């Protein structure tokens, strides 16, 4: 935790406030991870009750985003942080926005699972399970890296997204063959495709969180760089 | 412009800095609007050169996001803004992130238009043109509302998204019939569907920018409320 430089402030109260926000991010991240895991299970096992619970709990995720954002603005106004403290607060406000959108994916998967899938087309969803588990693991790891502001781990997770993309491409090809073979399956397959795309986007959002870790630790904005550029920028410092 | 409360600061330099960032947001917004208009024209007229130019210029949009974000962090560190100044800076940093993602849609449309459409399936894209023009107008209006922090206009634009959603639903239904009638069209139709979805998401992003306008003017976070709730909250104040 030493690279967080917490504990160096004259005001113990300021430390406590920063630490509290960080904890809140971890609580929110844990909830989102649970939501996503539940959504994938609900889809896979056609568990309607679980799906409904995930949809219900999306409100909690949304409320946490707003509360953490408010706490960030309050801390800026009151404590006037600079340097790494300010970077931490800015990284947090951007990270919770990504987490909220990952929460939306869980909600969306459950709504689709509840409404659109006829029993006959449930097997389509099997294709999505492994992609879903992959992104849950990525989310779990990036939250862990965020908690420790661990840049090496963030680099590893950043690279992982390429595998998610490849897996997604494979699923699209597979789903397309279903449609070609049986045009009646088209509506269900389209829903499965939309789910797959949302899940694939979770990988991108985890990559964004990695960039906020880079930003906090290195003090430099790494967004919109190519993978190679990111590697060489990180190596330089 | 009076509701921006600019010009009240003791430091003329601080005013100038805030005004400069606001101008940068408008420049970025103008560029994104142009990119989106060009992308829709490139798609509609199958103009490869224009499509290539849009893809090339996406870099400019990305760079502007990073530059404006850096300017926001600098102004927080140096000027320690509070109250409406701080809300303005926070609203700007979130708005440029939405604008950047709208820029990505322009880029994506052009990439798809260049790579995936066989001459035979170009008519599919006609369906998307009107949806595209609708969202360009929405973006244009929301930028205008942001420049003036005009809450009445923001409310009107916020409501407009419902129409975009309805138009999108109609397009999906229409595209689905193509696939059912001719399975050979499936790959092209899927591309058209992905374009339509990206365009529809622009409406959501404009709605988000409306929420940042509400936040700046009313000092309250309106995210994740239902449309009715937003209306009644706005009416109350």
UniProtKB/TrEMBL annotation, chains A, B:
Localization, per the record, is: Cytoplasm
Question: What Pfam families does the record tag this protein with?
Answer: PhoU
Q: Which InterPro entries does the record match to this protein?
A: PhoU, PhoU-like_sf, PhoU_dom
| Record's GO cellular component terms | cytoplasm
Gene Ontology terms describing biological process: intracellular phosphate ion homeostasis; negative regulation of phosphate metabolic process; phosphate ion transport
Its family remark reads: Belongs to the PhoU family.
Q: What does this protein do?
A: Part of the phosphate (Pho) regulon, which plays a key role in phosphate homeostasis. PhoU is essential for the repression of the Pho regulon at high phosphate conditions.
Output this protein's name.
Answer: Phosphate-specific transport system accessory protein PhoU
Q: What is the originating organism of this protein?
A: Limnobaculum parvum
């Amino acid at each position: 935790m030493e690279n967080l430089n917490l504990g160096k402030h004259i005001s113990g109260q300021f430390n406590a406030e920063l630490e509290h926000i960080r904890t809140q991010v971890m609580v929110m991240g844990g909830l989102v991870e649970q939501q996503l895991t539940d959504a994938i299970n609900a889809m896979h096992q056609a568990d309607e009750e679980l799906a409904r619970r995930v949809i219900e709990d999306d409100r909690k995720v949304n409320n946490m985003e707003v509360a953490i954002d408010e706490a960030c603005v309050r801390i800026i106004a009151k404590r006037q942080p600079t340097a790494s403290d300010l970077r931490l607060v800015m990284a947090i406000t951007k990270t919770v926005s990504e987490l909220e959108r990952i929460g939306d994916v869980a909600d969306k998967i459950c709504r689709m699972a509840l409404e659109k899938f006829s029993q006959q087309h449930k097997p389509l969803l099997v294709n999505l399970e492994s992609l879903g588990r992959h992104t849950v693991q990525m989310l779990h790891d990036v939250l862990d890296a965020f908690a420790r502001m661990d840049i090496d781990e963030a680099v590893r997770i950043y690279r992982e997204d390429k595998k998610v993309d490849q897996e997604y491409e494979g699923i699209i090809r597979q789903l397309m063959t279903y449609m070609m073979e049986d045009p009646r399956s088209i509506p269900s397959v389209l829903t499965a495709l939309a789910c797959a795309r949302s899940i694939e986007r979770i990988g991108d959002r985890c990559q964004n969180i990695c960039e906020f870790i880079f930003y906090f630790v290195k003090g430099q904005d790494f967004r919109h760089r190519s993978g190679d550029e990111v590697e060489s920028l990180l190596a330089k410092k």
